[in-house]
Amino acid sequence: MATPAPANGQFQIQTTGQRSPVATRIANFLFKNSILKQRTGLLDNTNDLDFFKYKRFERALLSDDYKSRQQNPKNGLPPISNAQEVQRIFILLIQNQLILPVTKLHYAEVKAIKGWKPNREKPTLKKAEKAVIDPNSYFGWLYTKPNPFILLYSILAIAGVFAVILFPLWPTFMRRGVWYLSMGALGLIGLFFATAIVRLIIYIISLVAFPKPFWLFPNLFEDCGVIESFKPLYGWEEPKQKKRKGKKTKKNKKTDAEGAGAGAGAGEDDKIEHVLTKKEKEAATGVETAANGNVNRRKVTVEEVAE
């Protein structure tokens, strides 16, 4: 299938356009296998891709589960007993374009690429140029299991198309039954629109006739189930309470302004201090200040005053 692996574990593998049945059966066994512990990542930061490690790939093919299934001839799985045979199967899957070598990028590496954004839930993957057989190497799946019911769905779709095309050839009772069903469906649709119109008319009348608006089937257009849409039968709409901010009259505003002005004036009066002039201080202390800054004390004489 392939040449032996070089010392560095790198392979140059040529892919093929057609998938081998053996490779498909092995991929069908490995895909979503619990031993593989595959996770979902973002290839090129855009597309989801399931990926796994090579060591778990080897562990799954050498497991007892694979050996038990390989013993059943109906499964068509080849025998695998050692690591060299696992490598040959691994190369076979790459040749058939069932797995893809990828590189898991770290946060800083993702930020370094223009236009890419790190994802906390899914790691970012990038396609590797070469496949390296290493226990910690990452590989992504290019394979998805076919839907087992796809054939049944296809047959039912084709049968439905032919049934519609061959409607003129149906028996009379079947065509009559289809006609009754279509009329019943149209009647239900018409009844729904009629209910909506009557409901709106009653609501408009209740705006004038009643203190509260009246609704018939108040949950008719609510986000609920079909049965819940018709429960309750009627209801009164509660008026929405609006928050009203109290407004002061001009008289109250004027009174408040006068009170504020009086308070401010009183505060200023309290702050006023009596300032003595220079002469008043000299007269009180008996000290004179000369022009050169020297302090001269005045002589006080006592005169006798005749009584």
TrEMBL record:
Top-rank lineage group of the source organism: Eukaryota
Main location: endoplasmic reticulum
Membrane-spanning residues: 150-171, 177-210
Cellular localization per UniProt: Endoplasmic reticulum membrane
UniProt keyword annotation of Lipoprotein present: no
Chain segments annotated as coiled-coil in the UniProt record: none
Topology class, membrane: Multi-pass membrane protein
UniProt-listed InterPro entries: Sec62 (IPR004728), Sec62_asco (IPR011553)
GO cellular component term, pick one: Sec62/Sec63 complex
GO molecular function, one term: protein transmembrane transporter activity
Keywords recorded for this protein, A-Z: Endoplasmic reticulum, Membrane, Protein transport, Translocation, Transmembrane, Transmembrane helix, Transport
Annotated spans, Disordered: 241-272
GO biological process per UniProt: post-translational protein targeting to membrane, translocation
Comp. bias (Basic residues): 241-253
Pfam family, one: Sec62
Family statement drawn from the similarity comment of this UniProt entry: Belongs to the SEC62 family.
PANTHER family per UniProt: TRANSLOCATION PROTEIN SEC62
Protein name: Translocation protein SEC62
